[in-house]
Amino acid sequence: MNGETAVAANRDRPAFGLTTDVVIFTIREDALCVLLVNRSREPFAGVWALPGGFLGPDEALNDGAARVLAEKTGVSGVFLEQLFTFGGPARDPRGRVVSVAYYALVPYNRLDRMAAVEGDRVAWVAVDELPELAFDHGEIVRMAHQRLAAKLDYSTIALQFMPERFTLSELQSVYETILGEQLDKRNFRKRLRTFECIEETGEMFRAGKHRPAKLFRMKQPGTVEIIK
Questions:
Q1: Residue 47 domain-assigned?
Q2: What value does the mean pLDDT take over residues 78-94?
Q3: Would residue 223 count as lying in a domain?
Q4: In the chain, count of helices (H) and strands (E)?
Q5: Cα 171–187–200 angle (5° rounding)?
Q6: Which residues constitute the domain of residue 12?
Q7: What angle do CA 70, 143, 19 make, to 5 degrees?
Q8: Is residue 99 within 8 Å of residue 83, measured between CB atoms?
Q9: Quick one: pLDDT band at residue 7, thresholds 50, 70, 90?
Q10: What is the pLDDT of residues 130-171, one digit of tens each?
Q11: Residue 8: C-alpha distances to residues 54, 97, 129, 173 (Å)
């Protein structure tokens, strides 16, 4: 192929963009919430969307997702996992744009210094109260929620929502919030015996007239183990 032919071929090739969108989950006021950004420009100006953006020419996918997470929340070093690649030809009115989506889990007590991009509004919204979202972001959130709920069955992923010290009742509440159903306390405590990644701190938590509860902690924070 000579130079003129190559130039013509590139001219006929459709524009292509690669973005990353991040579903940032936290649990706030007994609800599983996701961080949304109100877009300040077209397309979908004024519509809520997931935080995300185009990848730089020399930026790795994981680095781009971590950058979006840090820019929007001010935190790093939390659970971040690739979810799925969304590439429908009509998903973005600007042209052919493929998004590699991620989801992140952030304990709410780490969000006291949350940052917002200039010109954008951000809000935590419960996953069961989501407004109509830009692009195909509603589908992305639904898939991320399904992935999270499924991983509860065979991993210790729920621990990524916990503060440094927590009670078993607080951990059970996280499970119930994600699944949207109540769990039997006895069966849940039996299941926790398979969790070799948590240990007692030797401290107790006292709230009102309730009996003191033991406080636990993760042996290796940030690690998700598979339960066999």
A1: yes
A2: 94
A3: no
A4: 5, 9
A5: 45
A6: 8-145
A7: 45
A8: no
A9: very low
A10: 999 999 999 999 999 999 999 999 999 999 999 999 999 999
A11: 26, 22, 49, 60
Final residue before a domain boundary, out of 103, 124, 145: 145
Q: Calculate what percentage of the chain has a pLDDT beyond 70.
A: 89
Q: For residue 173, which amino acid is it?
A: S
The structure tokens 């690690």 sit at: 223
DSSP of 46-115: T-EE-SEEEPPTT--HHHHHHHHHHHHHS--SSEEEEEEEE--TTS-TTSEEEEEEEEEE--GGG-TT--
Look at residue 12 in the predicted model and tell me its pLDDT.
47
Cα 145 versus chain centre, distance: 9
The predicted model gives 184-212 an average pLDDT of 89
Q: 80: which strand partners?
A: 104
Over range 36-62, report the average pLDDT.
93
Structure tokens at 74: 């001010």
CB proximity list for 5: less than 8 A, separation 6 or greater: none
Q: Which two tokens stand for residue 83?
A: 């979810």
